[in-house]
Amino acid sequence: xxxxxxxxxxxxxxxxxxxxxxxxxxxxxxxxxxxxxxxxxxxxxxxxxxxxxxxxxxxxxxxxxxxxxxxxxxxxxxxxxxxxxxxxxxxxxxxxxxxxxxxxxxxxxxxxxxxxxx
Length: 118
Description:
mainly alpha
């Protein structure tokens, strides 16, 4: 992913335009909180959990760069704290007026979200 992203950035900086990067992923968690059962093979889930890029990077930092487990734990706690703060901030924000949720999402157009001309 890093190599492809570097190549795409270099292309853009050279004036060669944008690059579409297809990044395939796998959803380890069930489809929704309402889904109480997961029909996938547990071995399949274990295989994909082992490929988790965050866990792989943590192993790399520990095994290849000598980062101590305690420091990894500190970084994980720091990241969790930042996420918790961001969620708390977001939940404290006023709710948007109906229709505002799609502002600045789509390019200006004569079409509305319903598909009808405005």
